[in-house]
Amino acid sequence: MSPNRFALPARILHWLMAALILAMLLIGAGMISTTTDRYPELLAWHRPIGLAILILALVRLAVRLTHRAPPLPADLPAIQVAAAKGSHYLLYTLMIAMPLIGWAMQSAGGYPIILWKGFTLFPILPHDIVVYGWLRFTHGLLAYAFFLLILGHLGAALFHGLIRRDGVFSSMAG
């Protein structure tokens, strides 16, 4: 790894997960805005992608903990350094929490978590409709927060790539 670039596994995981998370957000938006006849089809995609994101996020966290990130530019204002670090902690937290909350929500709702024909996840919570309601609300609220965080992340990447041209964008881009 070059000191100015993320390790190759980190870059591959970043872009793979970016595509999966974008797909997940679009599928989730479709789930809450579609007619009921499309909901089961969208949910059938939502569940396995969510599990894939959870697994990849854990792998990505392990890669991140074992491979140093390139340093941020020395002239970056302290508030931007804090925002970068804080937003990355939130991104990792949501990449792990969102699938777990979805899994817990489906478990509490008493819904089988069918990933594909012949493979159903075990429930992680007992059936409890009140808990289901709270988890559904939380899952939706965090999805909006995740979307806003991703927009901020994208905006920061474009700022570094197009305006500052300081190598931050290229450290993950290629």
Automatic annotation (TrEMBL):
Pfam families: Ni_hydr_CYTB. Its main location: membrane. It is found in: Cell membrane. It comes from the Bacteria. Its cofactor is heme b. The keyword Metal-binding applies. InterPro entries: Cyt_b561_bac/Ni-Hgenase, Cytochrome_b561_oxidase, Di-haem_cyt_TM. Residues 5-172 form the Cytochrome b561 bacterial/Ni-hydrogenase domain. It is a multi-pass membrane protein. SUPFAM superfamilies: Transmembrane di-heme cytochromes. The chain crosses the membrane at residues 12-32, 44-63, 89-108, 114-135, 142-163. Keywords: Cell membrane, Electron transport, Heme, Iron, Membrane, Metal-binding, Transmembrane, Transmembrane helix, Transport. Belongs to the cytochrome b561 family. This is Cytochrome b. It comes from Sphingomonas abietis.
